[in-house]
């Protein structure tokens, strides 16, 4: 499930972004710069006494959902506090062929539920062919 941005407060130009699937599909082959900034809340699970502190999260932008290959951008974030709001960003350039898509993935090794907050974003801009 991908959060729906508030349409009246977002900038959206072009046909490649699908707000329902959370995927950007390249209209033409070329180099694209991708950026995502996720505002996340980690909620500790009281029953299991699990803390978010010290756990790591990976945020990736992957081509064709194949994050295990080299066609991705990635950052790793070490959680420093318990519950709370934190921000993770990933930026970089990927080559997409026409019709290929890119999307954001969160590898949650924290063991506690994460919630994506308003103010998170995902963008793609064609740099050149």
From TrEMBL:
PROSITE patterns: C1Q. GO terms for molecular function: hormone activity. Residues 1-129 form the C1q domain. Keywords: Disulfide bond, Glycoprotein, Hormone, Hydroxylation, Secreted, Signal. It is found in: Secreted. Belongs to the adipolin/erythroferrone family. This is Erythroferrone. The gene is Erfe.
